Amino acid sequence: LIKQIPAEKITRPPGFWKRIALDVLVVASAVGVSFWYRGYLAGESPFYIFAIAIAVFSLLSLLGTLFAKSFARRTFIIFLQSFGLISFFYHEPLALLGIAAAAVFFFCVWGEIATRRELENSVEIRFFGVARAHLRKLTTALVLLLVLLIPKFDPSQPVISEEFFSGIFRSSAGIVKNVYPEIDLSGSLGDFAESLAQLELQTDPDAKDLTPPERERKLIGIFEEKLAGLVNYLKSFTVAVTPDEPVNSLLYRILLLVIDGVRAKAGEWFTAVWALALFLILRGFGTVFYFVIGAVAFSVFHILVASNFAQVTYEARNKELIEFL
Fold first, then answer.
1. Secondary structure letter of residue 187 according to DSSP
2. pLDDT for 194-231, tens place per residue?
3. 62: closest CA among 306, 296, 287?
4. pTM of structure
5. How far apart (Å, rounded) are the C-alpha atoms in residues 287 and 34?
6. Where do runs of H (alpha helix) occur along 150-211?
């Protein structure tokens, strides 16, 4: 009989499919950021959904860097995610999309190099040092992308659309409401003044000894004082103010007046100045953002290790490594 020769068994390294799945999730989350950002700019999706999409993408991108052994492979994934982030902005000029994708690719590769240098230069894995090296450049790339893809300035149109401003205002008002439940920014200017009056009366120790009629009279007096102060202050912006106007609409009109004043002074440099100011503001918020993502990623990383989904191993030089089981 002919001796049977067993077929050569193909063996794959541990975590082969897990790495592929993670890479797919990174690229898919980048496409998700593009989808939700376009929806947010169009007023079709709320801001918090877009923020969650960015957070998920940043988290997966950091984990992808931690578990990737090949720099060439990570560079290819960064290339794919760069185009994924602009995938739903196909209506924009091709040159703009090329600049945006190139900027994202450049900063993400820079972050990848910085992350690998951090990993190579330490025996133990200093997680927050690694996360900071990666997320700082990723945050810069994302902020630059967001600024580049914001609808371009048209002198005949407001620099900031009312829908865009309303989305930011609603998110900010919600944060204020969580911290100070008594303050109401969702209603009219009169409602806001009344909420301030209520808050002042509640914190006044002498008000506890007043009878209900006296409290009512005192509240009315504080309300009128607050409302008059707000109206006089807002009139300094040369806008017509009525107590029944929503706070959202009033602040939007004031913002447009301020921007028009800056535009008149800056002239042709206005677009560049506006883009730079917006970049610096968003990048400032991004600093807080990547600290939060780093903390979340630290928890997720330890959950993966504790659940035997990943492990920390050592090289012959006693250097910690991260890999899938």
1. S
2. 888 888 887 877 777 777 788 788 888 888 888 888 88
3. 296
4. 0.66
5. 21
6. 162-179, 189-202
